[in-house]
From TrEMBL:
InterPro entries: ACR1-12 (IPR040217), ACT-like_dom_sf (IPR045865), ACT_dom (IPR002912)
Keywords: Repeat
Identification of the protein by name: ACT domain-containing protein ACR
Superkingdom to which the source organism belongs: Eukaryota
SUPFAM superfamilies: ACT-like
Length: 442
């Protein structure tokens, strides 16, 4: 047995001896469901719990995280997308079983990115320079190469673009594993993406398995150094501040930004993948603004950062918040799937000056379920009626304009990040967090 396999078996034994504990309470809070999770303190475990909540489209209103030796306790106040408590017994049972059985935790650091092998699909990962019509061109190439797009997710940020696309062979509906054909797909796709000899070179990778898609997109854009580029966002930038906590030998990370869904996942994903452990944290999301406070150390135990490291962490957290912070109109399309539907939609958008900033596309029971965040070519707002009219010409149905939490007009914050830091950062987070937990009266 290999050393890695022995470590996995030992980890499973420890988990069976000390299983995670979970309590889901709908009575202790008037407007949110409280989820408390106790588990061994291991790198990435907090992120896995948050990832589980995020995958259910839950909104985390408040969160408290604290560790004591080899154990941690997380408490999250969550609602659904409509702001209601989680009352579906099937969802509650799924959450409880996923955490108790440890299926949401990965046994090793290598596996913590959430690898899901697949024998039915081929996954391709794309990175390159963003430009209007790029997604349409990629769809056109894959269609010409007789590939069927099962699902895809596409992000853009600071002149960079990344996508994870799940494809099958159009004729057979099976996985594409012929090396020659995959090589041809890669060659043509890279030409479309625009390969250069410098940092802006496009890349394409193929795989029979893929990480958690949204986490993988963060990793791809981070590896492409999108945080180094200068963006021209029209929305207020997030505020990030790093301080030393000399009393407890932590680096304190303070973040202030406008609130939106999946914000907690995005910041924890970045810290975890940059090899930092969160020992304590407090999160408060008001629906308009969000404050996050983390006490971290590097996985090697080092807590004091150099100035260059501070700057890198600051830039990476800013980028993590902004990648999903779409400025455009959010549109949802549900219609019967047909051959060439996605190509027709993206091409029509391109030909009429509508730019796709972010997209999530999938097929469910023969229905195409697509979400698009769109602007005009200059990044300005697009009239919903204009886009709806264009798509109605293609699919004979109308687009639903979704209420986009990230596009709310924000009032000037009543509290600056400086005053927030002065009010919070000199407290002992450990005693602070435990005091908060005691008030829950579990």
């Amino acid at each position: 047995m290999s050393v890695s396999a022995m470590e996995d078996e030992y980890t499973k034994l420890v988990r069976r001896m000390n299983p995670p504990g979970v309590l889901i309470d709908n009575d202790a809070c008037e407007d949110a469901t409280i989820i408390r999770v106790d588990s061994e303190n291991k790198h990435g475990n907090i992120l896995e719990v948050v990832q589980l909540l995020t995958d259910q489209n839950f909104i985390v209103k408040k969160g408290y995280m604290t560790s004591d030796g080899g154990w941690f306790m997380n408490v999250f106040y969550v609602t659904d997308r409509e702001g209601k408590k989680i009352t579906d017994t099937r969802v509650i049972r799924y959450l409880h079983n996923s955490i108790v059985t440890g299926s949401c935790f990965r046994p090793t650091l290598m596996d913590s990115v959430g690898v899901r092998p697949s024998k039915e699909h081929t996954f391709i990962e794309l990175t390159g320079i963003d430009r209007p019509g790029l997604l349409s061109e990629v769809c056109a190439v894959l269609t010409d190469l007789k590939c069927n797009i099962v699902n895809a997710e596409f992000w853009t940020h600071n002149t960079r673009a990344a996508a994870v696309v799940c494809i099958t062979d159009k004729a057979t509906g099976c996985v594409i594993d012929d090396p020659h054909r995959l090589s041809t797909i890669k060659e043509i796709i890279c030409k479309v993406l625009g390969v250069n000899s410098d940092l802006t070179s496009a890349k394409m990778m193929t795989s029979m398995g893929v990480t958690h898609t949204e986490r993988r997109l963060h990793q791809m854009l981070h590896a492409d150094r999108d945080y180094d580029h200068v963006g021209n966002s029209k929305t207020p930038r997030p505020q990030v501040c790093l301080l030393d906590c000399l009393e407890k030998n932590y680096t304190v990370v303070m973040l202030s930004s406008k609130d939106r869904p999946k914000l907690l996942f995005d910041t924890l994903c970045t810290l975890t993948d940059m090899q930092y452990e969160v020992f304590h944290g407090v999160v408060h999301n008001s629906g308009i603004e969000a404050y996050q406070e983390y006490y971290i150390r590097h996985v090697g135990g080092r807590w004091k950062m150099s100035e260059a490291e501070r700057q890198c962490v600051t830039q990476c957290l800013e980028a993590a918040i902004e990648r999903r912070d779409s400025e455009g109109l959010e549109l949802e399309l549900r219609t019967k799937d047909r051959e060439g539907l996605l190509l027709d939609i993206t091409r029509t958008f391109r030909e009429n000056g509508v730019c796709i900033r972010r997209a999530e596309m999938s097929i469910e029971d023969g229905m195409a379920v697509d979400n698009f965040h769109v602007t005009d070519m200059l990044g300005n707002a697009v009239e919903a009626k204009e886009v709806e009219s264009l798509c109605a010409q293609i699919c004979k149905t109308s687009l639903q304009v979704r209420k986009n939490p990230t596009a709310l007009s924000l009032k000037p914050p009543k509290e600056t990040i400086t005053s927030f830091l002065q009010r919070n950062c000199f407290q002992s987070i450990k005693s602070h967090a435990w005091d908060l937990l005691k008030r829950l009266r579990f």
